[in-house]
Design brief:
Elements (H helix, E strand, L loop, with lengths): L2 E3 L5 E2 L13 E2 L3 E3 L17 H21 L20 H9 L12 H20 L6 H8 L4 H15 L2 H9 L10 H8 L6 H6 L13 H5 L7 H9 L8 E5 L13 H12 L4 E6 L5 H12 L2 E6 L6 H15 L2 E5 L3 E2 L5 E2 L3 H9 L7 E5 L11 E6 L4 H11 L11 H7 L4 H17 L7 H9 L10 E4 L12 H15 L1 H7 L2 H4 L6 E7 L5 H12 L3 E4 L1 H4 L6 H16 L2 E4 L15 H19 L3 E6 L7 H6 L2 E5 L4 H11 L12 H7 L4 H18 L5 H14 L13 H5 L1
Length: 746
C-alpha cells in the first residue's frame, strides 16, 4: 500500500442522501506513504507477462493518487486537521475557510515537487513496460487501443476497472466523495484525480456530457447522474477477451467457425459481395424476403475473409438508438464487422415497412470501427446509411435453384420411390430457409421411424409445416377426405381431372427440362373450372385433386372478399393471392360467378367499379402460378375473358340411374349394417337427384336406423328419399312407389 495506518485513528461520518438520519460513521484511519507497494522497477525492460501483473502496477499508481487526493482534500480545515469533520456540525472557522478558498482544481495543482516527481517516475515505468508489451496481448490493452484513449481517459478507465476488481475501492470512493451510497467514482472525482496540468475542470467535466467513443464504455443511466460505471459488456470482455451471445447479439468467427451448410445457390451474389469488400464499400445493404439467405451470404463472406462479425438482431432489441449503440460498442470491443438485420418494422395489419427514421438516423450516426457495415432488410432502406453504400437484392429462388436446394437438404433422407423432388420444387415456392427446415424435419421423422423411407404424404406434410401465412383470415381450410374411388363421373371427365393433376406433377419436366418456361412469361399456373348443377360433386372433386396432389386446399369466403366500398374488393383479392403464394396451396372459389361475372356496359360509377373488379381479378388469375379451382352452377354467367385463362373446364353432368346407384353404394361405409331388402336400382331410378341429395338420403336413413336399433332397411331409405324430395318441393305420388308404397305408411 501507498499508505499505512497511524496509531491515532480518526473517523468521518458520511451523509446518505437517501436517508435523512445520520448514517453510521465509516471508520477510515489517517494514513501516510510507505514503500511496501510500488510500481515494480525490477523488470523495467520486460513486457508484462499477463493482465494481472499490469493491474498490480496500476493499483499502486491509483492508490498513490487516492492518497494524495485524501491528503489534499478540499474539505479539510485551515490547518488540514481531520477533527473539523468529526460531526455533522460545521464550525465557524471551517465555514469561513470554505467561503474564502479557491475554486476546485486538479490534484496536480496541489502537489509538491517531490510528489509530482514520484508520480512521473512511477508512470514512466508503467509506460515503458507497456511499449514493450504486445498491444493485443491482453483484453485490457485491446480496449485501450481500440478506443484510442488519451492519457486522461486511460487512467479514468483503469480507475473504474480497479473498483470492480478490488472491493476496497468501494469504501474509499464513498469516503472521499462524502456519500456512503457512491461506491463508484464520479465524474468530479475522476476529473480532479487525473486532470492534466494547465487544463480546467469545467472543460473535462463537460466532455462526459457528450456522446463519444470513450463515454460509450460507461452505463448511460449512471453517466447521466455523474457516476462512472463500466458497462457489463465491457467488464465481460475485460475478463474473457470475447463476448458471449446475448440479447440479440451473436458473434461469428470466420477464422474458426464454418457455416452450417455450403453455398448451394447464389454464387454470383457471393462474388459481388467479395468485390464490394475489396472495393472499399462503407456499407453493404442486402434486401430480400425473410429466409432468402441474406445472413447466410454474410456468414460465408466472413468465412472467406477469415474475419470476425457481430450479428445484431434489431427486431429482438428495444429502443433502436440504444440497440445500435450497444452493437457498435460490442463490435469495437471485438474489432469485428457488424451486421444489422431485422431492420424492417411491421404494421398492425402485418405489412412490412422500411426501417423507421429513428433507426436509420441511429445507423447513420453509429461509430462503427470496421467497414463495411452490413444492413439486411426485406424492404430497401429509405436512404443510404453511408456515402459509399453498395446495394444487393436477393430474389426468391427459381425452380431450378429450389430443386438444387431440395436435392441438397434431402440428400440423406430416405424417400419412397414415388417421392419426386422435382415435383416438390415446382409446388413449393420456398425460400432456402423453408427448404432447409423441411429437410431437417424429414430427417428427424426418418430417425424416429427407425430409418424407414418417407412416403409422399409425409414429405408434403414436412413442407407444409414450413409455411407461414394469414390465409385463415380470408379463407377456410378444407381437409380433403375423398379419393378417386368416391368419384362417380364419366371416364372422360375423370381423365380430364387426372390430366390437371399431371399438370402440377410434371411442371419441372415441361417448363425446365423441355424449356417451355422460357417461352412463357406468365400464365404458368393451373386453373380448373368445375361447371354443373348443385350437388353433382364439384366440391368433392376439388378435395380429390387436393388429396391426389398432397396439397392443402382453402375455400375462399366470398362474403369476406366482396365489399361495397370502392377498392376494398381488389385489396382483399390481392391479399388472398399474396397469401396463397406464400402458402403454396389450392385456392377454391365456390359459386365463383359472384365475382367472376360478365362485364357490362358502363352506365354509371357502379358499373365502372364492377368492371374494374373483374379486370383486376383477370390479372390476378393470369399472374398466379399456383393451383386455382373454380366452381359454378351458372357457367353462362362467367365472363368470356376468363375462359381463355382457364386451363381445364370440367362439366359435371346430372347423374343417370346407373350413376346414381353407384353413388348410393359408394356413399355407404363398409361398416354400415344394410338389410338385403334395400332395392338400390329402384331408388336410383325413381328419385332423380344429384349426388349431394343422395348423400343426404343415405345419411338420413342411417340415423333413422340407428334410432330404432336396426340395420338400414328399404323403409329407412324410402322415407329419407321422400323427405329429400319434399325438401326440394317435389311431390311424390304414392302410386309411383309401387310395391314399396306401404313402407311409408308403416
Amino acid at each position: 500500500m501507498w499508505w499505512e495506518r497511524k496509531s491515532q485513528a480518526a473517523s468521518k461520518p458520511l451523509a446518505n442522501k437517501d436517508n435523512e438520519q445520520a448514517a453510521e460513521p465509516l471508520a477510515v484511519q489517517e494514513l501516510e506513504p510507505t514503500e511496501t507497494r510500488q510500481v515494480s522497477y525490477a523488470e523495467l525492460d520486460q513486457p508484462y507477462k499477463d493482465q494481472w501483473e499490469l493491474m498490480e502496477d496500476a493499483f499502486a499508481l491509483i492508490d498513490y493518487r487516492l492518497y494524495l487526493y485524501y491528503k489534499n482534500h478540499q474539505w479539510l480545515g485551515p490547518q488540514g486537521e481531520m477533527r473539523n469533520m468529526l460531526g455533522l456540525v460545521v464550525s465557524r472557522e471551517e465555514f469561513e475557510h470554505n467561503l474564502t478558498k479557491a475554486a476546485q482544481t486538479g490534484l496536480l495543482e496541489k502537489l509538491t515537487e517531490a510528489e509530482l516527481e514520484q508520480l512521473r517516475l512511477s508512470e514512466a515505468v508503467l509506460e515503458r513496460r507497456l511499449k514493450l508489451t504486445d498491444a493485443g496481448a491482453f483484453p485490457l490493452l485491446r480496449v485501450l487501443e481500440r478506443f484510442s484513449m488519451d492519457t486522461f481517459q486511460r487512467w479514468v478507465f483503469l480507475l473504474c476497472y480497479a473498483g470492480k476488481l478490488d472491493a476496497k475501492y468501494e469504501r474509499l470512493f464513498a469516503y472521499l466523495q462524502d456519500d456512503v451510497t457512491k461506491k463508484v467514482p464520479t465524474v468530479q472525482l475522476a476529473v480532479q484525480l487525473y486532470l492534466p496540468a494547465g487544463k480546467t475542470v469545467e472543460e473535462y467535466t463537460a466532455a462526459f456530457s457528450r456522446k463519444s467513443r470513450f463515454n460509450s464504455l460507461f452505463q448511460p443511466e449512471g453517466l447521466a447522474e455523474g457516476n462512472l460505471q463500466l458497462q457489463p459488456m465491457v467488464l465481460a470482455f475485460l475478463s474473457a477477451g470475447t463476448l458471449e451471445d446475448d440479447h440479440g447479439l451473436r458473434v461469428f468467427d470466420g477464422s474458426a467457425d464454418v457455416p452450417s451448410d455450403p453455398l448451394v445457390i447464389q454464387q454470383a451474389l457471393a462474388a459481388g459481395l467479395d468485390g464490394a469488400m475489396a472495393g472499399g464499400a462503407q456499407a453493404i445493404a442486402i434486401t430480400g424476403t425473410e429466409g432468402v439467405g441474406k445472413r447466410f451470404q454474410v456468414l460465408h463472406l466472413m468465412a472467406r475473409q477469415k474475419a470476425l462479425c457481430l450479428f445484431a438482431d434489431m427486431e429482438a432489441m428495444e429502443h433502436p438508438a440504444r440497440a445500435v449503440e450497444r452493437a457498435a460498442l460490442a463490435a469495437r470491443l471485438l474489432d469485428a464487422y457488424v451486421c444489422f438485420y431485422g431492420l424492417d418494422s411491421v404494421t398492425q395489419e402485418g405489412e412490412i415497412e422500411p426501417a423507421s427514421p429513428v433507426l436509420s438516423e441511429a445507423l447513420s450516426q453509429a461509430d462503427i470501427q470496421r467497414e463495411p457495415i452490413f444492413l439486411l432488410s426485406q424492404r430497401r432502406m429509405p436512404r443510404p446509411i453511408r456515402p459509399a453504400t453498395v446495394e444487393f437484392s436477393i430474389e426468391r429462388p427459381d425452380e431450378a435453384e429450389r430443386l438444387a436446394l431440395f436435392t441438397h437438404y434431402f440428400e440423406k433422407v430416405p424417400l419412397a420411390p414415388e417421392v419426386r423432388l422435382q415435383e416438390l420444387s415446382a409446388k413449393f415456392r420456398f425460400v432456402p430457409r423453408q427448404i432447409q427446415g423441411a429437410g431437417m424435419q424429414a430427417a428427424g421423422l426418418s430417425r424416429i421411424s427407425g430409418g424407414e423411407a418417407l412416403d409422399n404424404r409425409t414429405v408434403h406434410a414436412c413442407c407444409y409445416r414450413q409455411v407461414v401465412h394469414r390465409l385463415d383470415k380470408l379463407a377456410k381450410r378444407v381437409e380433403p377426405c375423398y379419393s378417386w374411388e368416391d368419384v362417380v363421373l364419366p371416364e372422360s371427365q375423370k381423365r380430364l381431372m387426372q390430366q390437371a393433376c399431371n399438370h402440377v406433377r410434371y411442371q419441372h419436366q415441361v417448363y425446365q427440362e423441355w424449356g417451355f418456361g422460357k417461352k412463357l412469361g406468365y400464365g404458368k399456373g393451373l386453373s380448373i373450372l368445375f361447371a354443373g348443377a348443385p350437388g353433382t360433386g364439384k366440391t368433392m372433386c376439388a378435395q380429390v385433386i387436393a388429396r391426389e396432389l398432397n396439397m392443402e386446399i382453402y375455400k375462399i369466403n366470398i362474403s369476406q372478399i366482396v365489399s361495397k366500398y370502392i377498392g376494398e374488393t381488389e385489396k382483399n383479392l390481392q391479399a388472398v393471392f399474396t397469401e396463397a403464394r406464400n402458402s403454396n396451396c389450392i385456392l377454391f372459389f365456390d359459386e365463383c360467378d359472384a365475382i367472376f361475372g360478365k362485364r357490362s356496359d358502363v352506365k354509371d360509377a357502379h358499373d365502372r367499379n364492377a368492371n374494374v373488379e373483374v379486370a383486376y381479378l383477370l390479372q390476378q388469375i393470369e399472374d398466379y402460378d399456383g393451383v386455382c379451382v373454380l366452381a359454378t352452377n351458372l357457367v353462362q354467367n362467367i365472363d368470356a375473358a376468363f375462359m381463355r385463362r382457364i386451363t381445364y373446364v370440367v362439366h359435371f353432368p346430372f347423374p343417370e340411374p346407373p350413376q346414381r346407384k353407384e353413388i348410393y353404394l359408394r356413399t355407404l361405409p363398409a361398416g354400415a349394417p344394410v338389410d338385403e331388402d334395400v332395392d338400390w336400382e329402384f331408388t336410383a331410378e325413381k328419385f332423380e337427384l344429384s349426388g349431394g341429395h343422395i348423400k343426404n338420403i343415405v345419411l338420413g336413413a342411417a340415423f333413422m336406423a340407428a334410432g330404432e336399433g336396426t340395420a338400414i332397411s328399404m323403409r329407412h331409405v324410402l322415407r329419407a328419399a321422400v323427405n329429400e324430395m319434399r325438401k326440394n318441393e317435389i311431390v311424390v305420388v304414392r302410386e309411383e312407389l309401387r310395391e314399396y308404397a306401404d313402407l311409408l305408411e308403416e
